[in-house]
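Q: Structure tokens for this one, please.
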Amino acid sequence: MKARLRRYFPGCGLAALMLFGSLAQAASTVIKVTVTIVAPPPCEINNNDLIEVSFGNDVMTTRIDGSYKKRPVVYSIECKNAPNNAMKMQIQGIGAGFDGDVLQTDKDDLGVALLRDGNRQPINTWVNFTYPKLPTFEAVLVKQAGLR
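A: Here is the predicted structure, written as tokens:
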């Protein structure tokens, strides 16, 4: 019987030996995994209310120049049991069709740019800060080039 198996399956003894050799090696390998989980403190943004910035009903697109109708973005962040620590936040939204870095409005050629410390802050990007000192933002109207 042994002779027939070797004739029909030449090299099967070597394959079996290699398979068992691999299993023996894997069984003796030690893997050590260390995981550190850093959970953010529970924070509440703006008392769970919407953050609204009003530009009024009298917007004149001919005056939009990057400073026209500039408004502060007033918000709060309260974190329970939070040490003074490095944190990050992100203002998320849908980008305007003419500029994906500014918030879309209900007017196709009009958007809202966010400024942090006077510099443009693209939406959907991280902002680093040290709690409890919050970054200050301003919102300003922007328009598609060529719009009057």
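A few notes: The helical segments are 2-8, 12-27. The chain has two helices and ten strands.
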